Amino acid sequence: MPTGSRYTGLIEHYRDRLPVSDSTRIISLGEGNTPLIRLENIPHETGREVEIYVKYEGLNPTGSFKDRGMSMAVTRAVEEGSRAVLCASTGNTSASAAAYAARAGITAFVIIPEGKIALGKLAQAMIHGAVVIQIRGNFDDGMRLVKEVADHAPVTIVNSINPYRLQGQKTAAFEIVDALGRAPDYHCLPVGNAGNITAHWIGYCEYSHQGDGRVTAACKYCAGECRYAGRGVTGTRPVMVGYQASGSAPFLRGEMVDHPETVATAIRIGHPQSWDSAWKVKEESGGWFDECSDAEILAAQKLLTSREGIFCEPASAISVAGALRDIRSGRIPEGSCVVCTLTGHGLKDPDTAIRQCEGGMLTVDATLDAVKRAILDSMAP
Ligand code: F0G
């Protein structure tokens, strides 16, 4: 075996903070260790002094943050003898479940809403060999069916109601603190099922235990049951801010939404599974929920691609859309260090990207003259 320092995934990296033992067979595709990129151009446009970083989770193996939780959930499913995993999905969870099941040599069953899955995600689930079940319904219908059918079939649910998913996903918070040397002041992220905001808070809480063995006074989340006391890395935790698309914003409405709609299909969810825990995160962190329109979401996606060279899917861009609005209004004060999670890669949803760029392509004859004219005309002031 070579003896270099090859990165082998988040379970190996953070294994002393994750529920695995020495004999656990780890199912990994090298997930985690994603870049925390400082935005260089966009912050100037706000007219405010802020540091904004994006955690580019689209660079995980299947192109979304789901791989963090899936590595952990499939590892434990295999350890417990499961031969099949099952999830409902708006797309990314199904892509991730399909890939990790393939890696593990087990079967993935994925339930998706017909016609509401971005093309890249559907391609992933299919090519990895998942059994893809389209339903004439939405994600929330799929989630209900997953819970019902799991009682009748020998399958492990790998939606974020599986606690191992959140254990894997909490490592994103560890990486941010490790990279910055401190917790950010604000952490902004999209909220759909609300598993990810919950997982980040678990991570920040575990990392904020005092080095002397005391749990920080503010840390109520895991008080009494946490095995990380005395292993703190930082004394602070961020304010957590969750953004939802206006057409599917149950946390803004204060109640479940029956017919969610948004261009950001990943977060087209009206009945979030982690409802109670997300409210708890908001309360404990002193944070808030807010909503963005589809137009704001798409504008932020375009801004990131055109001004920073970073391509994320629409659902991810909502974290930047909302953060910029809150920075401009002063709700996020000047001098803050802000992290926005870009949950999925832009290539997941090529249709929406291309639709945003009507007229962005020139078609000319294959001659020097025609190409030269196209270039010079485009450069004309
Ligand atoms: N961003 C993307 C790209 C997602 O795919 C999801 C959720 C979220 C944000 C919201 O995260 O649910 O933890 O609040 N996608 C799930 C799926 C529902 O099936 O792929 P959350």
- Overall strand count: 10
Portion of residues in helices? 25-40%
Share in β-strands? 5-15%
Largest sheet: 6 strands, mixed
Strand sequence of the main sheet, in spatial order?
1-2-10-7-8-9
Note the run of SSEs as H and E.
HEHEHEHEHEHEHHEHEHHEHHEHH
Cα-atom radius of gyration? 21 Å
Note the main attributes of this structure:
381 residues, four-stranded parallel β-sheet, globular, binds ligand F0G, 40% helix, six-stranded mixed β-sheet, 13% strand, alpha/beta
Strands, helices and their partners?
Elements: H1 10-13, E1 36-38, H2 42-46, E2 51-56, H3 66-79, E3 84-88, H4 92-104, E4 107-113, H5 119-127, E5 131-135, H6 139-150, E6 156-157, H7 163-169, H8 171-180, E7 186-190, H9 195-207, E8 239-245, H10 250-253, H11 275-285, E9 288-292, H12 294-308, H13 314-329, E10 337-342, H14 350-355, H15 368-379
Parallel strand pairs: 2-10, 3-4, 3-6, 4-5, 7-8, 7-10, 8-9
Antiparallel strand pairs: 1-2
Helix pairs in contact: 3-4, 3-7, 4-5, 7-9, 8-9, 9-11, 12-13
The site of ligand F0G has 22 residues, from helix 4, helix 9 and helix 13.
